[in-house]
């Protein structure tokens, strides 16, 4: 049975990425060796790294003065790398979900943290507005998409003259971004780019070197900039797969086209939810709704049917729609590689389920 | 042409590992999804993680009270994680090569470092003996195999009552180890285990919690112990491949059998080098020679033929034998998955080359 993959991450990748990766596991770039066992210093892999970096720059229109890094360790490691490199005295953070909470916790080890806005009071089901970023902060950090709660900030925030740092783990490449507004953008690869194991970091070079503390070598962005992400052995296969996805993105028309498709998919599902008798979205303000992760639940009178619907959908090849325990209900992740046909299959399953109950 | 893969890392993996990984990239465990796009929380991947952990414990006879972790970030990240977690006041380090130098550099950010022995005076071409580990050190750190220089400590060192920490990145699973003597063993997976992107850490649980400093969450071993290496998204595919290698190791007869084969391969190559007119080993003391990485050069009178021999070997499918720039000449890495036939092919190439020059 064909599967519709709605996992929140690791999550669906393009068939182009999967097919080319499978081939490279057998024979990488005609070397006669597997991508699993080839040196990261081989000219064939160095070419992969260079093309991947160049394509990120092209797709996101990264200006001069920025470096694109592919690191190991996951976005969670960035929660401490950012303050290690940038927090001299005080940082401002926006608290919009579990990952923001985790990022704030790490920053507090390094200096004063001003949480300028939070939606914790309503289980993070909205994006706070109307807050002020203190202009003496070293940087302002926010999470553009909250995977668990299904909220998203779909524009570049303005923090005045304060450096901007953004965790774009779950929505990078889903819209054009004005990179020049940011000092650090980071994203775990396992949503919109590659299998788990790599993290992409886009960093403005002149934002570095302004803190006094000693920084462990591996946690210092300058180490990886200087060595083109080859200071130590990088996660070779995840970077190879990332390159395949980036090529596919370019061929599909780039991030503007991806955004158009993502909006169409999200609209289809949100419309089905909003017009339904049985389901309701957990994020009420439409402007705050994520186009990557759609969170919804059964209305109170149908609550006991949630488990049954997960099984009903699974019988139709729909996997990964169980909501995170912090929200409950369902979460359908609509990452770039998910075809609209999968959203249609989910909407049909919802409609059929409603008709039969 | 069949390739003989002598890369120092990432390096040759068993055909069992490669074939099963290629299949899982297409369909993982009958899920209908690729291992690249399946949730780390899926029951199928949780089973992979559990079996991999159990097999490490079985193969290395890890006693109770130890945790086996699969982390991202590479062994280089361990260079700071070890002192973060264990260095309260002073640590002792042995300096036997580039990676030891890097580990020492990181430890110095955290406290006093006593370099108790070094072979830097002879470009690390021997293992220092007869040194004393200060009994007031928090731990003693050494590198069991020096990939770049071809030296190896093929027994468990004794540091008295001082905690023992060992970087076994390039020789783990090549001999039985008495894990009970160590507090931390770590190893980048990309030599004897898996593709790049995962690091295995074996840690004695009661060695932790004795330092006062705050530890960033991702760098605290206790975080990963508590969450069974699932605090954040782990490097899914590298761990899947690691499991395949571990299964293959068990089927081959375990580390005792692997050691026997590794010794036979190394003996074959060292004998060819030592009996040759043209080549010579860079490590003179036979007791210090690595069975994983065999470093050799052309004798001074033939020095200008080194480049020619690399090409001569490449024409016979022999790849990855160019020595690291710190040593020059050649390095043949004979990791567990390398068949003795590849060593025979290299020895034949050496003999033919000598005959024709």
What is the mean predicted local confidence, pLDDT of chain A? 97
What's the multimeric state?
A: homodimer
Percent of residues in helices of chain A comes to 25-40%
Q: From the 3D coordinates, which CATH architecture of the largest domain in chain A would you assign?
A: 3-Layer(aba) Sandwich
Q: Describe the biggest sheet of chain A?
A: 7 strands, mixed
What is the ordering of alpha helices and beta strands of chain A? EHHEHEHEEEEEEEHHHEEHEEH
- Beta percentage of chain A is 15-25%
The tally of strands of chain A reads 14
Largest interface, counted by CB within 8 Å of the partner chain's CB: A-B, 65 and 65 residues
CATH fold name of the largest domain in chain A, please?
Aspartate Aminotransferase, domain 2
Question: Unreliable segments of chain A (pLDDT under 50, ≥5 consecutive)?
Answer: none
Structural class of chain A: alpha/beta
- Tally of contiguous helical segments of chain A: 9
Radius of gyration of chain A: 21 Å
């Amino acid at each position: 049975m064909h599967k519709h993959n709605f996992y929140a991450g690791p999550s669906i990748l393009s068939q182009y990425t999967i097919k080319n990766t499978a081939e490279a596991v057998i024979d990488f770039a005609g070397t006669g060796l597997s991508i699993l066992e080839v040196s990261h210093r081989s000219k064939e892999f160095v070419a992969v790294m260079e093309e991947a970096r160049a394509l990120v720059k092209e797709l996101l229109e990264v200006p001069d003065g920025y470096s694109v890094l592919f690191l190991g360790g996951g976005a969670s490691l960035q929660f401490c790398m950012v303050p290690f490199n940038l927090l001299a005295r005080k940082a401002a953070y926006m608290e919009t979900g579990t990952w923001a909470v985790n990022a704030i916790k790490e920053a507090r080890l390094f200096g004063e943290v001003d949480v300028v806005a939070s939606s914790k009071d309503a289980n993070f089901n909205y994006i706070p507005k109307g807050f002020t970023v203190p202009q003496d902060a070293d940087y302002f950090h926010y999470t553009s998409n909250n995977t668990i709660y299904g909220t998203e900030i779909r524009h570049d925030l303005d923090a005045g003259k304060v450096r901007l740092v953004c965790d774009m783990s779950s929505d990078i490449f889903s819209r054009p971004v004005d990179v020049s507004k940011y000092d650090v953008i980071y994203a775990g690869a396992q949503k919109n780019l590659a299998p788990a194991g790599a993290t992409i970091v886009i960093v403005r070079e002149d934002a570095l070197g302004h803190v006094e503390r000693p920084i462990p070598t591996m946690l210092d962005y300058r180490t990886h900039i200087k060595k083109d992400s080859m200071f130590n052995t990088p996660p070779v296969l995840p970077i190879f797969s990332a390159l395949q996805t980036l090529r596919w993105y370019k061929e599909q028309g780039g991030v503007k086209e991806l955004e158009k498709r993502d909006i169409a998919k999200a609209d289809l599902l949100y419309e089905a939810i909003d017009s339904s008798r049985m389901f309701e979205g957990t994020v009420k303000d439409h402007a705050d709704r994520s186009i990557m992760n759609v969170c919804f639940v059964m209305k109170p009178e149908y609550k006991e049917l949630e488990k049954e619907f997960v099984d009903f959908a699974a019988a139709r090849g729909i996997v990964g729609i169980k909501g995170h325990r912090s929200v409950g209900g369902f979460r359908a992740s609509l990452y770039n590689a998910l075809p609209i046909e999968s959203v249609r299959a989910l909407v049909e399953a919802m409609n059929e389920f409603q008709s039969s109950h």
